[in-house]
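Hi V.,

Quick status before I head out on leave. The structure for the redesign project is tokenized and pasted below; the design run finished overnight.
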């Protein structure tokens, strides 16, 4: 990169690989870090390293955890017997921020996408089915995105969940078509949960 030192250029390149961070934003962030005290930069670097090293998947729901269970599953006795199936961990964060949902989650870490070669065997669906049978949930909420792959995933989930004889609902279409739940505002997510509807295979 012309005008940058070698290490500054490398830092800008790495920062620009982050989601929603373009070259200009990456440059501003890099320059801010260089102007900051060494202690602040080291604290940030250490936080990133520790988060990466210490964070794993919850054995029950696949959300972020530092031990065998995430904070949500550790306190499941205080939660409703409802399971919300989402695509990504960021969806859990977005839903939790609404303060309107008090059940548990199951994170798929992806969605069915025939064009990308992602099939049912690539998602933790067997784990989900076993969990539903063991924990006797009163309702399963399908909260996948409203884009093509999200709808494909929702349809497949309906098919495999129907034989379990449990109430199955789908969040309402307050979520704009083509959007990912993790990027939606709290009010819209709340309305989508309140307006969820029964589904059939």
């Amino acid at each position: 990169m012309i005008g940058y030192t070698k290490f500054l250029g490398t830092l800008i390149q790495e920062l620009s690989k982050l989601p929603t961070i373009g070259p200009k934003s990456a440059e501003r962030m890099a320059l801010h870090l260089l102007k900051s005290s060494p202690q602040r930069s080291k604290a940030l670097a250490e936080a990133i390293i520790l988060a990466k090293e210490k964070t794993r998947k919850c054995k029950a729901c696949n959300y972020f955890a530092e031990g065998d269970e995430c904070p949500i599953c550790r306190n499941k006795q205080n939660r409703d017997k409802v399971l919300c199936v989402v695509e990504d961990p960021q969806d859990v964060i977005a839903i939790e921020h609404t303060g309107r949902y008090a059940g548990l989650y199951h994170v798929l870490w992806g969605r069915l996408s025939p064009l990308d070669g992602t099939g049912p065997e690539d998602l933790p669906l067997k784990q989900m089915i076993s969990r539903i049978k063991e924990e006797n949930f009163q309702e399963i909420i399908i909260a996948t995105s409203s884009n093509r792959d999200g709808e494909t995933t929702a349809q497949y989930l309906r098919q495999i969940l129907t034989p379990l004889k449990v109430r199955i609902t789908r969040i309402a279409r307050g979520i704009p078509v083509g959007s990912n739940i993790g990027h939606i505002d709290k009010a819209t997510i709340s309305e989508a949960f309140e307006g969820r509807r029964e589904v059939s295979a």
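Above is the designed sequence. The domain at 6-54 is CATH 1.10.8.420 (Helicase, Ruva Protein; domain 3).

G. will cover questions while I'm gone.

Best,
W.
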